[in-house]
Task: structure prediction
Amino acid sequence: MKKVAALVLGLSAGCLGTPAFAGPPALAKARAQGTERGDLVRLELRVSATRAGGTVTVDRGASDGLAVGDFVELNPREGGLLEGTIIAVDPRSATVELHDRALLPPAGTRGRVWVPRDRIKQLARSQKKAPVQERPEHAPWVNEDEEWTEGMPLLAQVKAVRPEDRAVTYQARNYLIVDQHYNTVGDRWDGFYRLGSDMVVDNLFGKGGELHVDSEYNHRFADLPYDVDIDDGDFRLDRLSYLFGGDRFARDRWQGGRFLIHDMPEFGLIDGAQWTRRLENGHRFGAIMGFMPEPNGGLESGHDFQIGGYYRWVADATERLTATGGFQKTWHDGSQDRDLFVVKVRYLPVEGWRATGTAWVDLYDGSTDVNKGSGTELTQAVVTAYRTWESGNGMRATYRHLKFPELLRNEFNPIDPADLALNKLNRAAVRGWRYLSEDMRLEAEAGVWDDEDEDGYDFEFGVGVTDMFRADSRSTVAVFMSEGEFSTLYGVRAGHGWRVENGRWDLHYEFSNNDQAGFTADNDDAIQHELRAGRDFRLGQAWDLSVGADARSFNEEESLSLAVYVQQNMRGTL
Amino acid sequence: MKRLRKHLPNWALAGAGLCLVAACLTQAGVAGWQEGARHEWWEGHGPVLPHDSFPADCELCHVGSKWQSLKEDFEFDHEAETGYALTEAHAGARCLRCHNDRGPVEVFEAQGCLGCHEDIHTGELGDDCSSCHDQTTWHARGMVARHNQTRFPLVGRHASTACWRCHEGAEIGQFLPLDTTCLTCHAADQAAAQNPNHNLLGYVDQCHRCHMTTTWNQAEVDPFY
Result:
């Protein structure tokens, strides 16, 4: 009612007319840009930013005479009239709450505000009384970085933020993960607890460097009916590294400590150092040297040493087409171990098909690689091509190839030497999704595989519907089949998930039958029911909590899996 | 020599620590290492964050004359202003984690998740991170169902067993395919089986002819074994 009265008052004031008013600069501007009628003065303004919750910021504030409760009109370019009320003022801006929160005008939208004449006069008097501050003396302005030339947009070449201009900041998280499994037959428990923390400190010495610390404590236990129970824990340092350079001010990038090799993660984790140089055309090359922790929960280091190098070619500065080749040479306890070439190509245009591919090629020396002989072998490859269309439809095709390389390093579970030469795995899969309507999406995936003994296939076909039972929800139904090495699995699953104010709920049910291959008795079918419920909590920006329970019934036993994930997020300035 | 090997892991970690200290000291102690190197990178791309489309009222975002700092109540509708929505954990990230002096954010964004996040799976699982992870936390979901798309679908006991029991590197994101032969994981079970004594009867492989993959119990003896 008050706002309506203000509108009526404002409009009537606009019709009456009064003499112009002279005052301090802010008011002179008001006179130049606005009109003054009756007891109200109209000031022109613009929207400078839109905010969540149906509010906008305007470029007028308390220094112009605005106060909380003033009535504002906005004229969007598309036409119409939006009305709002000022709910907060700063010296040079104000926040306006729109009466219709669904319509947010873009920045730049013109409008006007009606300010009582008395307030303007009072403001003018106070500004007259305010002592005039003398402008401080300073050295002539110097900004050698602007490099502004005539014809260039005024703000296009603002000074880049220098490390010395930035504060020392950090971003960190602490987390606890609990995974617990229980089987009714034999009362078997199986548990895994992870307590971890990682932190990145940026600009630690005011020169743009980055300190990365990442560690985790694991505790695991398992009841083993035919073996000694497992009950142990260990602390692991995943990352402890410092990097500097490699930014717009330094073409050389250095990193030391324990870290994942930059540009070439295929070479793994390293306890050592890496140097990378970026050329003016965007190409990069680098060298690596150090020990390689074993890729398991212990990260035991000191047995494997590597040197490596790589070159990364880029088509242009956008880096949407790149090709990288690298070589890694390793020694295990002083004995020559692996000669590995890695080649990878990334083609990621803005539109159309995208493709990525990585190949691991091992070079064998017959004198040390007794099972593989001499020569080269493609031991691993991952190739992906995918595309999404404007409609949201898309598809992705993936091919994977794996052969175990012959290594002295403790990288895989022990492999029978006789199998080493024969072991292989190939899998090709295609996944596609298509929107039948805005709310309904079909999804399908099919894959084929073969290894040294068998071959098989899998497929899944489903439909997902949004907002079916409630707002902000998604419901899915899918049928699936998988012909595996030892069994054929087929079934159906249904899921329903919905968002709530502080997170989401998820419910799933799955029914499947597992038909075992090669099992000579008649009862080779194992029917399984699975029910899963999960709840995610987003507790502000600082905490995430996920809890989930998964109950299964199969054969004549049941199992229950419980999962808890708690994460604390931190960020700030040091 | 054995003694040396026993202590090698500690030496390696100490070496990593030394590299770290050296890297820190290098930057903390060597003044002017970046002199003369300004704008060698991305000169043609302008500033970290172009301001040419921003409102002229600087104080909407910045604190007074301290132009490197943002106001406490700074808000920015990233989707409306840039067309790229920041959701879940990304909504709470510091701006400079992406908009920094390591290069234009568009270049990183074009690479997908791996443009900013290191690939702890060392390239072996491809680049479709969203098939296992969402943007809330790193905790992967639906992995048992995902495992159906391998040659070893997980059912029964296998579906309610922690990943690390088979994948030794699960804690650090290593999920390379394993040899699916039962004895890869169950050699100790086979050796200890006394009812009947498996070794005595020659039941040393092809476990699936008598045992279901869902459970060890309810075995049916294959008369032709």
